[in-house]
Amino acid sequence: MKLIPVILSGGSGTRLWPVSRELFPKQLVKLVDDQSLFQHTLKRIEYLRNHITDVEFASPLVICNEQHRFLIAQQAQESNIDLSAIILEPLAKNTAPALTLAAQYIEQYMSDGIMLVLPADHAVEDLPSFSNSISSLTQSFEHSKSIGVFGITPNSPHTGYGYIEAAAEQDLATVVGFKEKPSLEVAEEYVKSGHYYWNSGMFLLSASVWLKALKQLNTKMTEACADAIKNGHQDLDFFRVDKSAFETSPSDSIDYAVIEQVNDLKAMGVSLVMSAMDCGWTDLGAWPSVAEHLGEDEQGNVSQGDVIMSDTSNTFVTAQQRMVATVGVDNLVVVETPDAVLVADKSQAQGVKDIVAELKRRGRDEHETHRRVYRPWGNYETVDYGSRYQVKRIIVNPGASLSLQMHHHRAEHWIVVKGTAEVTCGEKVFLMSENQSTYIPIGTTHRLVNPGKLPLELIEVQSGSYLGEDDIVRFEDIYGREKES
């Protein structure tokens, strides 16, 4: 048997704002330790590969937004994990089209296989239990006629999760149905009964079974995704689906499109089997979930960074750049980043998406990017700006290169702080070391390369009538971005 881990890494960066942003969503953030949630997902797959020895594991296949492609590739490389493919969604269409792209890709390029579908933004504390549940389900059901779901044994009457109703209170059980996020009273009844489990959003099924079921339930989505893969193409390390075909696909979740259609699946001869998990699972979908996962102290508080609390209870505080102090407060979420601060009642933390919507309405950019912006060659951070000038701190990774480019409206001064820079300025190519500087006039073709083995750090001072990131003309780019803004 061949198992193909399929990682769903979509997301718009709204629910954990301001740490999570549209161009740097939560699964790519180092949220709880020195690895991102995506990297932890890769780590879990490696654990499964090493402990489920009777199954052949393919390299993971990742579905992500095209704007996140370089971060996905970089974080996989940092984790020393090879990927089967990185399939790029040109626009967000929810999880059902994403999984359909994966299934179509597997059938067209990899032959059929059993997909282990894992969202990239979950946390799991008990890897042995996680592995045992997956191993049990892998060995127990007919892969040509079944869909496996993973239900989390509830430890509280959680109202933020959907529930799976199982036919029996056992590790492997037939699925009776699915329930939407319940009221507290209903959730308490679910937990008391012993037949209900949190819906984890993790699945085990073959590509052919998914496509067979979806074709009957949503033919338009099936055909749109099939055309998107058929007319797609490889671009460096990425597979770009055909945008015009994918745009015609309906938007829906895996649950609504297929999994929750229990009676329709039964009529097709497809059974739903649940494996119960008790593995310290958390869907880090809101700040209270992050606080719960990190573990509260005796006063119910959780803090990250430079934080001082006095007469404070049931409060979560994370500080990235400045010291944050709280006095005489209860049940709050406080999140400090270099360009935005969130203060919310814990019970209202889901409402952060309304703040993101308001930022978009006002035409601001704090919903989209941080002050530190990541690029395939490294990152830059705006440290000061004003009328007709802007100062940036730029980090170029070892061996990386910015594009050969020019600007119509701004000149640039570069000062090397650390490392060695190879500079192209017009017809000249030269090296600069620490404390050396150069000037790039308006309209001059230029390029910056780090030829060394250590990160290159420099300060860039821009001056001119317009300093926007769209004032760039690319002539050559090793990352294939000549046609992008």
Summary tags:
single chain; 485 residues; alpha/beta; Spore Coat Polysaccharide Biosynthesis Protein SpsA, Chain A; Jelly Rolls; 3 domains; six-stranded antiparallel sheet; 12 helices; 31 strands; 25% helix; globular
Q: What would you say this structure looks like, in words?
A:
By secondary structure, this protein is an alpha/beta fold. The chain folds into 3 domains: 2-283, Spore Coat Polysaccharide Biosynthesis Protein SpsA, Chain A (Alpha-Beta Complex); 295-361, no CATH class; 372-476, Jelly Rolls. The protein has 12 helices and 31 strands. A 6-stranded antiparallel β-sheet has the order 21-22-23-30-25-28, with no helix packed on it. Strands 7-10-8-9-13 form a 5-stranded mixed barrel. β19 (332-336) and β20 (341-345) form a beta hairpin. The relative contact order is 0.11.
Summarize the structure.
The chain contains 12 helices and 31 strands.
SSE order and pairing:
Layout: E1 2-9, H1 37-51, E2 56-57, E3 61-65, H2 69-78, E4 85-89, H3 95-110, E5 114-119, E6 122-124, H4 127-140, E7 146-152, E8 163-166, E9 172-179, H5 184-193, E10 196-206, H6 207-217, H7 219-230, E11 233-235, E12 238-240, H8 243-247, H9 254-259, H10 262-267, E13 271-277, E14 281-283, H11 287-294, E15 302-304, E16 307-310, E17 316-319, E18 324-327, E19 332-336, E20 341-345, H12 352-361, E21 372-375, E22 378-386, E23 389-396, E24 404-406, E25 410-418, E26 421-425, E27 428-432, E28 437-440, E29 446-449, E30 456-464, E31 473-476
Parallel strand pairs: 1-2, 1-3, 1-5, 3-4, 4-12, 7-13, 15-17, 16-18, 17-19
Antiparallel strand pairs: 5-10, 6-14, 7-10, 8-9, 8-10, 9-13, 11-12, 19-20, 21-22, 22-23, 23-30, 24-31, 25-28, 25-30, 26-27, 26-29
Helix pairs in contact: 3-6, 3-7, 6-7
